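Lab meeting notes turned into a lecture example. A postdoc, R.K., suggested we walk through two folding results consecutively so the class can see how the record format repeats. The first protein's sequence and structure tokens come next.
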Amino acid sequence: MTPTAEATVTDPNITDLIDLNALFTPDELALRDRVRAYVQTSIKPRIAEWYEAAEFPREVIKGFADLGILGMHLSGYGCPGGSSVDYGIAMMELEAGDSGLRTFVSVQGSLAMSAIHKHGSEEQKNQYLPGMAKGEIIGCFGLTEPTAGSDPGSMQTTAVREGDTWVINGAKRWIGLASIADLAIIWAMTAEGVRGFIVPTDTPGFTATPIQQKLSMRASIQCDIDLVDVKVSESQRLPNAKGLSGPFKCLNEARYGIVWGAMGAARDSLEAVLAYSAERLQFGQPLAAYQLTQKKLADMAVEINKGVLLALHLGRMKDKNGGLEPHQISTGKLNNVREAIEICREARAMLGGNGITLDYSPLRHANNLESVRTYEGTDEVHTLVLGQRLTGIPAFRLG
């Protein structure tokens, strides 16, 4: 018997081996179920189509706003004011649908909105954040450059002050949402160091060009940005962002969301292959009846349970302490993305030839996670963060 495409498990808690549900409050579980239901009804039925067409479905923006997950962890100025754990739960459920769609929420909320919320003036917060929380204003976050990814301190983009005007020149790359954004948070080197600016994307000299022919994150938008004599007023500078700590505080919010999100992709892949193995007959038995299959399923489930425990622990600490140390976030991102990508690859292999089609989610998740593994800090960068924590020696630069 050949299973119908993307059969589903009937028990939504089947992969919860240690009663993780008992660690969440009723309100947190209700949030999880709301986001999961939206993903099930509005994303999963069409995600293969969007992925194959390399199309970001702008219609989901309103759905995300209605769910209250844009800037979810921010308070005031029309933002939802949820907890860090709330935000993490939502990211896990969204990435069970697709990493690219979770990335939209991350760029909008954890990067663009967070930059304004953390570093903006009261006037800037009131002007932009309410519309961004409603999905009426889309933002992007311009930090990475063609020659400066893991080392943003070497950025070449400059901002020169001329009276009450700043003139920005440079280039950014891999900037999510830039071609559909209404504003861009642009980080540039000034005479006083790195500073952030709110740049309306219709400003003369600002050009965003979508990057084509991607093998990953196909249902999302990443762009090159060119900035040629882009002029903004002093009122568009983020007054409280000084140095690289400005963008890094935002990146830490996005990295935290990834710790949860990666487990959503992994769980969805496990659920896909679990359902498949129960229906697929080989040598007169379902694949699920074979010892090798059960070992692989068990290994996947154990790593997912451990990963969710790690994410939840970090979320509870973040809510209690008001933030996390960089090495704590690096521990979560390094472990959970690394384990998730292995789970998705193994699930793809267990699907055999059927696993290379978009009828099944694991290879799509694995391809997406290649990007997730790279952005917001590569494995190598997070490894060195942990190495510095353990030894006291920063090994990012030799000599």
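The second example is placed directly after the first for contrast:
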Amino acid sequence: MKVAMVSPYDYGRPGGVGEHVRHLSSELRSRGMEVRILAPSGGTRREKVEGLIPLGRPIPVPANGSIARISLSFHLSRRIREVLAREAFDVVHIHEPLMPALPVDVLRLNQTSVAIGTFHAYARQNLGYYYGRPILRRQFKRLRACIAVSEPARTFVARYFPADYTVIPNGIDPLCFRPDAPPAPGISHPTRRTILFLGRLEERKGLATLLDAYQLLRRVRADCQLVVVGDGGLRRGYERRVEEEGIPDVHFAGFVPEADKPGYFTAADIYCAPNTGKESFGVILLEAMASGTPVVATAIDGFRQVVTEGTQGLLVPPGDGGAMATALGFLLDHPATRVEMGQSGRKSAEGYAWPLVADRVIGVYQSALMARSHTEVNSVVQHTAAEIG
């Protein structure tokens, strides 16, 4: 089987959809499939990316409380036609298939391959979907099968484009994220437990709430520290707040490569995800859980998909620094509970291993290919019958 993985996002920048595409592509290749990745690329990756066919130059666009680096070029049709004709894919798997401009163009121009769409996003509303439905509906009908990465993602997109969606979650690599991964150097402290934040420094990731909670903790105890891993437009503002308000023992580690992430989870005693919303799925929570690290997270729809309150971690209302401080304090005071939650999280995360996820995706491919074959056979039979008649 020859598969095209199509992503709207800059493949040279880290991001959830990009990592999904990378891991799924690798897993499919391990099954003997030939995979090409069609995506915009800003050229920031120094290493050669296997199978990457760059299409379009990405530009930053505000979207869903974040910044999406996508291609808005509508002059790629000729190049896309050339790629599709040359490669002759069996399956074109388009991630966020209704996003401009690359996914929609590939969907529109694809004539021979089975088109599969995976929907990742979640939000309360999408004005582009709402106002663009008359046009996008024609392209949506070209999809042979639809996948959503979670129930919230399915509910969100089905509001605008009703269909039979198969929910297949994001995956993780439990061989990479594991309790015995070497801890990142310089993170653990001999007398303080480490609370870890790892994510982009933008408003929807909720670091402001975690700083509120941590500040409350440090008013009554000195046995913890906060390590912030990640970068973004709000970093300088957060650093300024820590300095001006004298919040002790907050360490900004900056951006770390994907390969270094496991060591930060194993160096931490608690992973905290204070996100405010708009998350369709908690991949970052699964990575912490697979590492054996208990979590404190906000009780948003995407996170409730992977964490059971009181089992793998604790869930608190988004934006509630007091509740978050209470949850963090409880885990700091109960090391045995941290161990139990870490073990439970590791066991739960094993169910999201990429080989298991890939099995389900391949099942969708095979069903769609079989359905197309049946349709073609029926068409030939009907045509033949009409000629005989």
